[in-house]
Amino acid sequence: MRSCDGCTECCTGALEVKVFDQLVGKDNPCSYMCDTGCSINDDPKRPKACAQYQCFWTLSSDVPDWMKPSLSGVILDEENGTFRASCTKEVSGYVFLYLLYLANEFDTSLTIWHINNPHIERNLGAVIAMKELKVFGERP
Ligand code: SF4
Ligand code: SF4
User: Fold this and answer.
1) Cα–Cα distances in Å, from 102 out to 20, 23, 40, 82?
2) pTM, entire model
């Protein structure tokens, strides 16, 4: 399994979790992020959901290094054989092409949405033609 190694993309609103009295989620990034990752990483009271969450990039070594969420702006999750791509930054065309390749390779559906990233719509033209692809603007 890969290490997050400084990435905090899931803490910017993709992960919905209560951290002490703060509700982290869309439009509400976690205040415990720091330059090296999570500033309360070693705190035994850190929520279990934080410790347990692993995006698909950390789980699958088949996903290229450059798809690391902090580099690509995409957090990939796999659930019940379907993929979800949560975009946290402006996403490059080649990253979208990789998402298409992934959905094709696994012969599965793919949901793409953005989290705090209104720029995603600019690149959606490249991907909406794909069968089984669900594209949302903002995360519902
Ligand atoms: S998005 Fe993935 S790589 Fe980045 S901090 Fe979260 S689990 Fe780690
Ligand atoms: S507590 Fe740490 S791991 Fe959990 S959301 Fe905040 S920064 Fe991320």
Assistant:
1) 36, 32, 34, 10
2) 0.86
